[in-house]
Fold this sequence. Notes:
The complex is a heterodimer. Chain A has helices at about 30-50, 55-60, 65-70, 80-90, 95-100, 130-150, and strands at about 15-20, 20-25, 105, 115-120, 120. By secondary structure, chain A is mainly alpha-helical.
Amino acid sequence: MSISRSSIGGARTISIVVIGLVAGAVLLSPRNGEQDSLGDYLRASRKATGLTLRAVEAMTGVTNGYLSQIEGRSAKQPSPNVLYKLAGAYGIDYSDLLVRAGHRIPSAESSAGRPATLAGIPLRALEELTEQEAAELRNYLAYIRQKRVS
Amino acid sequence: MSVLQIASSEDEVRRYARGALVAAGLGDRVPVPVEEVAAAVNLRREDLFDLGGDAPPEILAIMRKLKGKVFGLLAVEERRYYIDTTVSTERQRFTEAHEIGHDALPWHRAAYFGEDKTTLAPDTRVGLEAEANLFSSEILFAGDRFNREADDYAPSLNVPLSLAGSFQTSAAATLRRYVWGSDRDLAIIVTGLRRGGDGSLPVFAELTCESPRFRAKYGAITDLLPARINTALYPSLSSVNPHRRGSVDPCEVVLSSRRGSIAFIAEGFANGYNGFILLYRKRRLDGNRRLDGKRLKLIT
Lengths: 150, 300
């Protein structure tokens, strides 16, 4: 299952000039940059739709006070449920919001390249197993599917 | 996640679960036929470990490895979920409803099945699994029905243990649901069964819970308890052990709360894995029905 990523406000780095110590830029981690951009991104998305905070509250049930906290960055990691509703209200990519909020993080080296799908079937269990167990489960399910077809 | 978010998420999960029950058109049927709930959301059940008699040895070897590790899994686009049917009926039903929850809660799909360069953050995974567990609980206990029925009776350990048979739910899940959803002053302490050197048992705070009314009156039960329970607090402690399954004679437990020292009746139960101590206040005049002992069917 492929998830498209929004092109608005993708991963970015923030440069800080430390006067007298380092004549250059210190790059903060991309993850910090993404987390910090979530509130700004959601505010920009809301404004692009012309919705007020109260209108969003009426549409989604997320209180305008909490929306204000999210946009003002005092609430840094809204739950997936809240992000799903906001993605729907603003017409933006939910998967991208999950990454920006830190709910989905870069895969560890050991699991990088491990497909989360089997012949196009997303399997939730794969994320909960070791790499070897996941590989064995994929083979096992491939056998079950083949048996069902034949 | 903040308290505000969790409350919001709980309400949503319950709404979706009740929507699934309504879509299945089950009326008042208990135990809730989980497979019919699955059919209502266009999911089919498959046996995870039924390979027939002609499976090659390498597949059988994998199956043996996976048994006990994978109880169920969901293949969304295939519209199937796979269940280990060799475990208890109660465990199967819980797993089924849990997997249906991952499909029915729309924010779960992209969360679990994102592209391969990212994976779920550990805390997020824990939160989503808790949501699927809540969904499962809502389905198996038929929304409010279980608690409405349970609260018709005077508080007692026998109430949830008896109803567990009707709802086909495990004793542990039923005890916690009984307390969590009750309109009465109830709390349940869940302990481990491995004793410390002083004979005490550890309190499992993440499983210990109280009813909303108990919390409003006395505060969260975990705030009233030490990290370990000893016989000074709970005189029947010695009867809660791994070798004994079933109920323990009631005794009195006194806890210091914001209302001062409060005496509770404590009824114990052990299922071989955990100890459970149900706390409730004794009332002088209790007009509620009491469960007839003959109706009891203990699920351990």
